[in-house]
Amino acid sequence: MLLAHVNEEAEEKLLDALALSEEKLVPVQVTKEVTGRLELDEKASLHELVAQAAKSVNHKLKNGMDVPQSTHDKITAAVKAVATAAQGATADEAAMTRYYLEQLETIAEKAKSGLGDQTYADGGKIPMVTPYLHTGIATVTEMVPAPADNPEPGQLSAKLRNASRIKASLDPATGEASWNGTSRAQATGKEYLIDMGDGWSAVYRPYGLNQPGKAEFSMRGQLEVHAPAGAGHGPELVSRLEQLHLANKPMTASEGEWTYLANNIKAQGLASNPQVKEAMDVARGLEDLQVQELFHAHAHEAVGMDEAGLSAFAKKLQLQAAHDVLPKRVAVVRDAVGQAAGFADGAALSASPGYQPTPAKSGGWLTWSRFDVTGNPEAFASAWQGRSLVHGMGGGDVTTLFATGVLASTERRAVMGTSKGVGMSESQDKFSGGANSVFLRVKDTLEAGYSGHGVRLVWDDPAVLMKRSDYYAYNGDHFGALHTANGKSTSGQTSDPMKIATFSSGSNEVMFRDGIDLLGSEAPSRVLCGSADDRDKLLTFFADKKITHLGGKPVTDVVDI
Questions:
Q1: What's the pLDDT tens digit per position in 515-533?
Q2: What is the rounded distance in angstroms from the CA atom of residue 442 to the CA atom of residue 498?
């Protein structure tokens, strides 16, 4: 199976490959996971108590009033109710109580400190508290579209159905994931099941049918390509992407640099720059011209083709045009980005020491750097002096974490087979979009070692991660929100590493896409296990796996209590 992510700009090409059936519906009985509140939560009204406390604090902050004792009493009552529920709780209930206590910690801090130097609209408001959602098994009847009766030539038969994810299993000792080829977990949204012929299939979760606030935002653009049973299908998994009108050749240097430039445009906020906007328009026009040239040069090859052959021929030329013209597009955009960033031109930018268009491998995915960090190490170090990045584990076992080798996002953990409840707000993050990232916090280095909340991973050299181009951040708890449809706020979102270095809120959050490679170049400076037993267990694991160093340091110097 191949797992991939399709950019929103490429979706139109993919959908053009499908013959969709959305009108003819048939009933199907399915056993699947369903999501809802836990009985203990509803019986004790835990969500309602926490939400009331948050609303009470927000009301006072919005109107510039001091938080009265009655509001503090609501917070205390909610804390007591959650603490009572935690006594004798099951594993699922314990995850729920941890989630609500985390929210109450943020609420209590805001009630005590007030807005500080923030405004209510710009990070000062406590985000809406959503209920903790639990997933269980149930049998339900679904109406699903039947396959299209008469697909157009060259199109793939596809039907729309309720969204789902593969349900994998994780071996906690080895960190290896496996999947039986059939088990799936329910998700909120829609997806296309695509018949690619000869036993091949694909699943795609489109942007257009999964609107913010109504579907899990983090799954939009996800693509699965499934091979027939048996081994040896690896190379063909990639080549089959052509059926979906997607590039299916190994990444070229130009493709890597195009992604690098696109990521830097977004990370450095250059999209609104007039030169960059004009360059992007020119780049799109270059591809259209290349398509015309290829059609003219190869028109004789189309003689005698039937309708299906002509359709396939046209799509092949379009993919070839996109591939061939990319070096020209890169040159145009590189010039504009260089000038927007203060360089004489693209040549000067590419010659600078911080320009590193080759991606780096991080876990099972690729990351691209940003030249405003890699090219200015002294300025970055000065801004971040005395500050660290910290991740506090919400649940799970630290040895199992290092067995996988990655600190993975909620979406990545779902396909790895990691059990639910490891993160603090997994269900909510899927709707906010934060589930595609791992969450870290900026703290003073001297305070980063406090282990009162269990296992913590600490990066005392933030440049190890902040040189990446895929993060965004808030100086407050926003659930990693990428939209406002669910009442979350995106006000104050920033990707500026210098601004992030000044974060002062105890609930600030920095989101890194997909995850972090814990055993490679992104390894943490310190791993604080919370107890001597967990420390010894982790060191034994490293010894058994012959892992002697993390980030160039002996593991005995990295792992502590």
A1: 999 999 999 999 999 889 9
A2: 12
